[in-house]
Design goal:
By secondary structure, this protein is an alpha/beta fold. The protein has three domains: 3-211 and 414-428, Aldehyde Dehydrogenase, Chain A, domain 1; 216-402, 3-Layer(aba) Sandwich (Aldehyde Dehydrogenase, Chain A, domain 2); 435-482, no CATH class. The protein has helices at 3-16, 23-39, 41-52, 56-82, 119-130, 144-157, 170-176, 190-201, 225-237, 254-272, 288-297, 348-356, 371-380, 415-421, 435-441, 450-460, 476-494, and strands at 85-86, 97-104, 107-111, 134-138, 183-187, 207-210, 216-219, 249-252, 302-305, 309-310, 315-316, 319-322, 339-344, 364-367, 386-388, 409-410, 423-430. The strands form four sheets. Strands 9-12-13-8-7-14-15 form a seven-stranded mixed β-sheet, with helices on both faces. The longest helix has 27 residues, at 56-82. The termini are far apart. Residues 3-427 form the Aldehyde dehydrogenase domain. Pfam families: Aldedh. Belongs to the aldehyde dehydrogenase family. Keywords: NAD, Oxidoreductase.
Length: 501
């Protein structure tokens, strides 16, 4: 038995014991996880700063604060989420109890990415705990400080057998994927997502994949450019653009491009001063490999704003590129950094055509005051989400599902959507031994007749013309009256009374 096999088996034994199923256990573990975040906020923020140079504000807004909010939402709604849901019935099942139960799936594996290493590890974990599962967490090795602090802290607050943390890189992840899980949640690149998907297929394991992609932004000339520029640039500058739902590129007319660039210069100067590298509010690129990848994308580009680089500090200033060709390398992959190319289009129709020719994005942004333009994008494009006149903050709405479509991902999480993702929806029909129910149901028993067929069609609300169904037009009242009469007759006979039919 390998080390990972022992960890997974221990978690499975804990799940099979029923430990994670009761409401009280789930609530207790969520409360303890919340306590961990609140009590260790400064330590967690320090780890995020070490990994990505995140400021306290970004650590709170994009990681710790969002997680506390996610837990509070789960705690407030857990009882109602766990409660069996009534399902719609037909005449055939009108006396039956028909419900949908939410069963935990079992042992869940969460493999997270490095860009929001705390948030992306724990957000799905909250949903999996709420759903009654055991969770094995595999934080990214590219954010080692955050991964280490999770490994240290989680066993102090949560059940160690149910919620272990495993450290390591691709080799350890590959070995871990040899084990059988009941659900796998992965956040990261499409390339690795395909590997995860392939490994899951061997065990027929369901997956949730959040894979990102090139999220477009359409900008027209009706907007308040002061507001629009701030919202767009904040979405691009948070975490130095290393955000899966950051605006990846802008589509607009040449006139709008010029207005945006001029406003962007003012906004960036007001935020970061004359030297962005000296600002305590701006993150760094995660490592040398990603820095080199991003600097390669800047080759043969017309820089309109920014463009300053420092390989020793892994620093790239917010950079806007104009006159970008659709065939340029930066348009062939997700940028995942503080580089924002602008491509010119003449109309929203041309922008929609451009978007629809490419893989479906994780999200899409539309900046306009015209409702008809919003409707064009809503009704003629497909994306994981769409956000009008704002960027990124749709992620913070627990009621909205977060996930991709097609190349940008499979499945969704957040709030109730996380609970549902990590639950199996088990259908249940329960019938009593009531004489009336049995009388109605007896029409399905042999020997069959046209009369029984008529009656069953009436109950199921169907009218199939077999050429001999003459009783179908009869009213439901007459049919039910006959049923009641037969039932009462049977009741009197069973109880020794005279036949009153």
């Amino acid at each position: 038995m390998t080390e990972y096999n022992k960890i997974v088996q221990t978690a499975r034994d804990a799940f099979q014991s029923g430990r994670t199923r009761p409401y009280e256990f789930r609530r207790d573990q969520l409360q303890k996880l919340r306590k961990m975040l609140v009590e260790n906020g400064p330590k967690l923020a320090s780890a995020l700063n070490e990994d990505l140079r995140k400021s306290k504000m970004e650590a709170f807004l994009t990681e710790i604060g969002l997680l506390v909010n996610e837990i509070d939402d789960a705690l407030a709604n857990l009882k109602s989420w766990m409660k069996p849901q009534n399902a719609k019935k037909n005449l055939m099942t009108m006396f039956n109890e028909v419900k949908i139960y939410s069963d935990p799936k079992g042992v869940v594996l969460v493999i997270s990415s490095w860009n929001y290493p705390l948030n992306i590890t724990l957000t799905p974990t909250v949903g999996a705990i709420a759903a009654g599962n055991c969770v094995i967490m595999k934080p990214s090795e590219l954010a080692p400080a955050t991964a280490s602090i999770l490994k240290e802290m989680i066993p102090k607050y949560l059940d160690q057998e149910c919620y272990p943390v495993i450290l390591g890189g691709p080799k350890e992840t590959s070995e871990l994927l040899l084990e059988k899980f009941d659900h796998i949640m992965y956040t990261g690149s499409t390339k690795v997502g395909k590997i995860i998907y392939g490994a899951a297929q061997k065990h027929l394991t369901p997956v949730t994949l959040e894979l990102g992609g090139k999220s477009p932004l359409y900008l027209d000339n009706t907007v308040n450019m002061d507001y629009a520029a701030k919202r767009i640039l904040w979405g691009k500058c948070v975490n130095a653009g290393q955000t899966c739902i950051a605006p990846d590129y802008i589509l607009c007319t040449k006139e709008v491009e010029n207005k945006f660039i001029e406003e962007a210069k003012k906004v960036l100067q007001s935020w970061f001063g004359d030297d962005t590298a000296k600002s305590p509010d701006y993150c760094r690129i995660i490592n040398d490999n990603h820095f080199k990848r991003l600097t390669n994308l800047l080759e043969n580009c017309e820089v309109a704003v920014g463009g300053k680089l420092d390989p020793n500090d892994k620093f790239i200033t917010p950079t806007i590129i104009r006159n970008v060709n659709a065939n340029h390398p930066m348009m062939q992959e997700e940028i995942f950094g503080p580089i924002l190319p602008i491509l010119t289009v003449e109309s929203p129709y041309e922008a929609i055509h451009f978007i629809n020719e490419r893989p479906r994005p994780l999200t899409m942004y539309v900046f306009t005051k015209r409702r008809e333009v919003c409707d064009l994008f809503l009704n003629n494009t497909i994306s994981g989400s769409i956000c009008i006149n704002e960027t990124i903050i749709q992620y913070g709405v627990n009621a909205l599902p977060f996930g991709g479509v097609g190349d940008s991902g499979i499945g969704s999480i957040h709030g109730k959507h996380s609970f549902d993702t990590f639950s199996h929806k088990k259908s249940c029909l329960s019938k009593s031994y009531n004489p009336l129910e049995e009388t109605i149901a007896s029409a399905r028993y042999p020997p069959y007749s046209d009369k029984k067929l008529n009656f069953m069609q009436l109950l199921l609300g169907m009218k199939l013309n077999f050429g001999f169904l003459k009783l179908v037009p009869y009213s439901l009242v007459f049919a039910l009256g006959t049923i009641v009469g037969l039932t009462l007759n049977k009741y009197y006979k069973d109880n020794g009374a005279e036949d009153r039919s």
